[in-house]
Amino acid sequence: MTSVRTDEQASVRPTQEDEVAAAGSEVIGGPHGRRAGSAGWWNPLRVIVLLALGMFALGMVQKLPCYDGAWFSGQTSQYVRACYSDIPHLYNGRGFADGIMPYFERIPDEVSGGMEYLEYPVLTGLFMTVASWMTPGGGDIVEREQIYWMINAAMLMICAVVATVAVSRTHRFRPWDALLLALAPAYALTATINWDLLAVALTAVAMLMWSRSRPLATGVLLGLATAAKLYPLFLLGPLLVLCWRGGRWRAFGTALGGAALSWSCVNVPVMIGAWDGWLKFYSFSQERPVDFGSIWLILSQRTDLPLESTDVNNYAMILMLLGCSAIAALTLTAPRRPRFPQLAFLVLALFVLTNKVYSPQYVLWLIPLAVLARPKWRDFLIWQACEVMYFVGIWMYLAYTGSGDKHQGLPPEGYQVIILVHLLGTLYLSAVVIRDILLPEHDVVRSSGADDPAGGPLDGIPDRFVLRRHSSLTASTSSTEPKVHWGAGRPQ
Question: Residue 475 pairs with which residues in a beta bridge?
Answer without folding.
Answer: 484
